């Protein structure tokens, strides 16, 4: 009897230790293990609706991985091969070079450690409960969204496919060794890349060129003039941007495809049918650029496949299979990955650590007690 009681009190002790341990490490903390110094980011992750503790772990690790790739992507090098392929030739994008460079810098600022000088990026509300019912859209051929942004605010929902994505370091090490796949940029797509696409949608981080057609002044010879301002970054469409010219029939919109994945991201930057800022306006292009710079820094080579080398543009524009590119896109082509926040939905998430952790521990203690109680009953009956 006594022996059993002693045994049973042991897990209780352990779970108390575990509880204190979990509470002592609030959100945003990474770098546990692997002998790295512990650092707590100035930006915290909040909310966590519908996420279990494993999910939250994957989300935190992806966030830290994302910081690593953005830090490899600054300063922006417009003349380098990754930039030329993913944003366009330097003379084509010269009007947008500063914008691109500032976007990358703001994203890299997520690496700011708490307690250091300077402003910090806002906290990010993360969730897994799919409040807008977007995760279920998609099909076998085109895929579905692995995550989506809500309202160009720091608010991201992670779908099931996110949790299938690998960690950065392991994936890059593995693919760089693989003779068949090492040159393919898409093979390096990880949760870091997806996270990077998501933060570029935050209006605080990613700024894009907003073009509006406005009617020309009365009696002027031009019917329309274009006004260019900056706004939040969304996802560009292939072969023509959506515009607001009233003479454009709405059915056109249906034929436009969103540019996710390396093939389409590169097409934005090379096709003459695209505007020079389409690539700079596409969150995925920043994510892939950062991914490429990271591989370049870590492994010393730039994975440049697919190479955009085709006899004529028409051959690409009329070939949907070619445009489709990679098999996995981690997104759904027919749908934007930014959805509006409905009125009444909270932007701010509740602090994460305590509630999520305690919930789990309580469950564990409950299981422990139950096991002890069963043993106790068993032994009683035996005696
Ligand atoms: C850059 O901006 C200037 C001034 O707005 C414009 O005249 C020029 O055509 C632009 N160049 C490119 C390559 O977009
Ligand atoms: C992105 O979408 C938001 C919300 O619809 C809009 O305000 C913003 O202007 C868009 N950005 C661009 C570059 O069109
Ligand atoms: C536009 O042209 C008409 C006819 O030529 C003239 O009567 C009118 O005053 C003009 N309006 C402006 C704003 O110049």
TrEMBL record:
Residues 1-24 form the signal peptide. Keywords: Signal. The lineage of its organism: Eukaryota, Fungi, Dikarya, Ascomycota, Pezizomycotina. It comes from the Eukaryota. This is Uncharacterized protein. GO terms for molecular function: metallopeptidase activity.
